[in-house]
């Protein structure tokens, strides 16, 4: 049995587990390649890591598998670093955000994250009623994010792919205002002018991204397991995915980048 198949067999006996890629910035094969989007990058990363899996790898605390011990070559002072975390939710469940943040803090050995961006689940329907229910769920979940800011785990927070009316409603309801809207311009060439104007007037950064929506983490993981582990993890359901980037402030150097994914067993 291969090392990857042995690991997968252990994971299949758990109710839930986490996969942490470690610092993928340390892999030249990934760093030098241009990917169509972040899902393609994650797929290439997992495929590479499962192919080179160390025979001694095991399941660590909180049922976390650290696929690589790779760290940045130079150690920086914490005050010189800015940690940004994007969390991809599968449900309007505040524990998904809390667990994603706690897992990142634990893996990076730090007490706080400078910025979190939340990608919410898609709207389940196209009617105005569906959209109103969706934005109320966003507002409710935002209150949990505000609590995390109050206790010092997070410094600032933003959202992903909110349209003008959605961002306006959240901004009006929030006492801790969103400071970033991570916007995907795939299919168009610019951010809508109305959204640009609103963001400028309310001091909200508009940053573009190439993350698919919804993020196909389960499909990526299943594909890698079938290819590298001779296993079909059909019983695994994705709870959340998170991508962190660690920047050296004022120098625009990315010291570290990685993904943390949490799955549960769906019997």
Automatic annotation (TrEMBL):
Gene Ontology molecular function terms on file: enzyme regulator activity; glutamate-cysteine ligase catalytic subunit binding
Pfam families on file: Aldo_ket_red
GO cellular component: glutamate-cysteine ligase complex
UniProt protein name: GCS light chain
Family from the record: Belongs to the aldo/keto reductase family. Glutamate--cysteine ligase light chain subfamily.
Lineage: Eukaryota, Metazoa, Ecdysozoa, Nematoda, Chromadorea
Gene3D superfamilies the record matches: NADP-dependent oxidoreductase domain
Domain NADP-dependent oxidoreductase: 66-208
This protein's pathway: Sulfur metabolism; glutathione biosynthesis; glutathione from L-cysteine and L-glutamate: step 1/2
Species of the source: Steinernema glaseri
Top-level taxon of origin: Eukaryota
Keywords per UniProt: Glutathione biosynthesis
Assembly and binders: Heterodimer of a catalytic heavy chain and a regulatory light chain.
GO biological process: glutathione biosynthetic process
């Amino acid at each position: 049995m291969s090392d990857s198949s042995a690991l997968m067999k252990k994971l299949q006996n758990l109710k839930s587990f986490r996969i942490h890629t470690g610092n993928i910035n340390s892999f030249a094969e990934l760093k030098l390649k241009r990917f169509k989007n972040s899902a393609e990058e994650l797929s290439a990363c997992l495929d590479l890591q499962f192919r080179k899996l160390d025979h001694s790898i095991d399941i660590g605390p909180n049922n976390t598998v650290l696929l690589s011990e790779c760290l940045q070559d130079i150690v920086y002072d914490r005050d010189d670093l800015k940690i940004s975390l994007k969390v991809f939710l599968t449900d309007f469940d505040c524990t998904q955000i809390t667990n994603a943040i706690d897992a990142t803090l634990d893996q990076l050995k730090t007490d706080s994250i400078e910025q979190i961006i939340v990608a919410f689940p898609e709207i389940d329907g196209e009617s105005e009623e569906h959209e109103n229910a969706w934005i109320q769920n966003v507002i409710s979940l935002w209150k949990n994010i505000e609590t995390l800011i109050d206790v010092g785990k997070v410094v600032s927070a933003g959202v992903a792919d909110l349209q003008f009316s959605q961002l306006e409603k959240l901004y009006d309801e929030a006492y801790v205002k969103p400071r970033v809207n991570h916007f995907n311009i795939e299919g168009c060439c610019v951010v809508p002018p109305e959204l640009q104007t609103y963001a400028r007037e309310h001091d909200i950064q508009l940053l573009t991204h190439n993350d698919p929506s919804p993020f196909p983490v389960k499909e990526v993981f299943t594909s890698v397991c079938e290819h590298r582990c001779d296993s079909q993890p059909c019983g695994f359901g994705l709870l959340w995915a998170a991508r962190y980037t660690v920047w050296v402030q004022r120098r625009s150097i990315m010291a570290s980048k990685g993904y943390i994914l949490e799955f549960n067993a769906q019997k």
